[in-house]
Specification:
- The protein is an alpha/beta fold and 247 residues long.
- The chain has a single domain, classed as 3-Layer(aba) Sandwich (Rossmann fold), CATH 3.40.50.
- Strands 3, 4, 5, 6, 7, 8, 9, 10 and 11 form a 9-stranded mixed beta sheet that branches. A two-stranded antiparallel ribbon has the order 1-2.
- The chain is globular.
- The two termini are 27 Å apart.
Amino acid sequence: MSAANNSWGPATIRPQEAEHFGKLAREWWDPKGPMASLHRLNPLRLRFIRDAIDAHWPGAAASSAPLAGKRALDAGSGAGLLCEPLSRLGAQVTGVDAAGENVAAARTHAQGSGLEISYHAGELAGLDIGTFDLVTSMEVIEHVADKRAFVASLAAVMKPGGLVVLSTPNRTMASRLLLVEGAERLGMIPRGTHHWDDFVTPDDLRELLAEAGLAMGEPCGISWSPGKGLHLSSDLSLNYLVTAQPA
C-alpha cells in the first residue's frame, strides 16, 4: 500500500473511506439505520472491554467506574458509539475520526447526553492530544491506508502500563461470503463498507502489534447463530477482538 508522506509520517486516512462514513454521520445513532450492525456489536465490544479493564487494573472489577482518573482514546470513533459508554465508566475520553461530519455528530450527541468528550478530526499521529491509559479502535484497521503506521500511532499514544483493545473482521472465506457479499447485498450494512482484501488475520495483527512493541493477547471471536444471535465465542472466522500491552 502506498501512502503520501507528511510532517508526521505516512498517511493512514483513505479519503474515500472518510467520505463514505461521513455521509452516514446523521444516521449513526439510529439503531435501525445504516449503522444498525454497530449498535448490535457494541454490547459485545463493551463486555470484552470491561473484562479487559477488570483484568488489567487491580480493583477495577469492584468499581462501577473502573476508568475513573484514567484517559481513554477511541481511534476511529465515528459518531461516538463507544466513546460515550467509556465516559460513563469514568474515563476522560477523546475520540478521533477521519471524517469531520462524524466528529460534528459525535459532539452534538455527547452534548445532548451531558457528557464531556473531546473529539478531533484528522490523522492520529498529527494531533497533539497527549497519552492514554486505554486505547481502543473498533472495526477501523481494515479501513486504513497504512496498517503498520496506524498501529504504531496507537502504540505511540499509549501510556506505560496501558492497554489497547482492537476489533476487526478476519480475512477468511466465511467473512467474505457473510460480511461482504451477504450482508452488503442484503442491505444489512451499507454497500462499499467492507473490502475483503483489507481484512486482517490474527497472525497479521499479532505481527503488526509486535513491530510496534506490543504483545497481543488471546483473540476472542464474534460469532452469529440462529439461537444466540451475535455472541462472543472461540470462533474467529468472522470477526475478533484482542487486547495488547507493552511487550
